[in-house]
Amino acid sequence: MSHAHTVPTDRSSPLGRLARWLQARSFALTPEQIGITEGLRAATAVALMVTLALYLDQPVLSWAAFAAFWACLADPGGPFGVRLRAMGGFALIGTAMAGAVSAVAALGHGWAAAALFVALFICCLSRVYGPAATQVGVLACCVAVVAVGYPMAPLDALRLSGVFLLGSGWAVTLCLVLWRIHPYAPARRAVAAIYSELGDMTAELLALHASGATQDARWKAHAAEHRRAVRDTIERARAAVGRFSAGRGNGRDIRRALLAAIEAGERIFAGLIALGYDLEPHATGTPTDADTLPLRQLRAALTRTSRQVMRSEPDRALVAYEAEVLDRVARPAHDLVGRVAQVCAQALADLTRAWAPPVDDGALATVPEQDETPRRRLTPARALRLALVPSSPIARHALRVALVVTATYAVTAYLDVAYAYWATMAAVVVMQPQAATTWPRTLERVVGSVIGGAAAAFLAVALPTPLALLAAIFPLAAATIALRSVSYSLFVTFLTPLFVLVADLLHPGLNAHGEGIALARAFNNTLGSVIGLAGCLVLWPEREPKGFPHKLAAAVEANMRYATLVVRAGQTPYAEIDAARRAAGLASTAAEVTRQRMVLEGRRRKAHLDEAGAVLETLRRLAGAATVAWLDERTIPGPPDTRRIGYCEAATMRLGALVRGVPTDDSALDREGEPPDDIARAVTHVVQAAKDYARAVEVTRS
Where is the chain membrane-spanning (predicted)? Predict the structure, then answer.
């Protein structure tokens, strides 16, 4: 006897939908990376220095507050040694940079510009040593551009260096000794986000399934947004875990457990892809509670697993119980929903076994260390020599930053702009090696500065006393650091009132009203950001290594390879098929994000973008059909179908030529004939969409 079904209301959160919408347009929003403890620690470091400056009536100590803040930004997380090298290196470089540039700037604008150019060029070369060194280099650039705005005699510049060392040294001591946070916390948050995204994907599937919707835009939006979001989240988690070497002892066990959680998430993701593809055309009528029970239980299991991944000692028994319950409710269901739920239950059960303490070294081999591929490491000196080669993109970017920021300094000095270093600092931080990543950063910087400037003006008026301003600085500093990995726009939004209030508190003589400083901050940031973007577009503009046509071709080939391996499942190792599914997802995501960015950049009138979108949509359906077939193959293995194999291989050749604009015919496909199954039908749709795309490209060129 069936029960009346109530449409579930636990759909994915509005914040999750916003994050997926922004990520599709190159604006990162990762709510899982909110670091509350890191924010409170940084706020303590900054607030103490500001209090000391206010108590001693020494405005120069504001440099200690900024140094403490920058040192906290230089913290890359991870093992103690990595953090010590990054934060300690920044403290020493910043100390030398502050005093030297300030002393040279006192000789005049010409000397200041020359010193700024040299300092920026050298600091930007740090990119050759990896992400942590890149961040240190960017922050050192910020120190240089601010120091230019504080020209001092040699003895005073030496005192400035001492103040900087005091603030940065205090922050290093607080972060590494006095207030230590588990080094794997950011990686745990990144891995836990996989299960949160999978839970959102399940909730959306449940809502669509319950509504009985078929073949409508909501299913297409679900496939596009959730697949892309989960794939991005999985890859961010891989990168977060991959930043830490396997090491020994406890660190190795933690890394092994996190990699196991990522692999389990991959398997669950594959099941949800298959389920989304299968439910769309077959969601006729309103399902009963019994029909949706496995999905509801899966959503609950994913939510609870996400919480356990966040813990330093996850509750294995709880996750094992969730897997057992999920398997029990899935077995009576003989449709794909039941089979997918069983696959997910098995993935969670395997995860709990991987979380078990290793008995010996042999147990460590149960989880593949895929990211530990041996690499030939360059010595620091050789890496620097390679970076200085004229054709090196690192050298070109360093030269571009040095030229543009020095020009920004010259313009602001000529116009006698107040707080000019905010403009030069904005130019430093928005300039990225590629213009495609510079313009989103520019837009986020401008928007964040305007909103933050308005907030700062309000706070300056609403909090007229020094004590009230000091009380506001602590939560602003905490929010700024806590949100630094979540969204650049939010980071700048809180950073702006923080800097404005510190300047207003410690330099009240420069401006009687904080709203004037806030306006200067917003204007200068906008000016510097626009100049930085113009510099990236004009000086040796570096496009993406592969343009959109190449990315679309790569997506077609990767998805066709995945489909072909699936139809050859009896002849292909399972691990190779899993790797091909991941490669197909990455290639499709790269093409989709590039297409969305091109639309946002104003290229919407190019007709072939519409046809390209249709190709990507058919690729999502092909991946869904292939994943359904793959789950069926793992459940009930069967002999390879030579007819399907021949059709897929012939279509692969045809598609490779189509998307590259090479004339071909369909004789190979005609000879093979179309087998009557979902994969073949999906391949046929991809071929037709690719033909339409090729025609649209030809029309555009003509």
Answer: 52-74, 86-105, 111-129, 136-153, 159-179, 401-422, 450-474, 486-506, 518-540
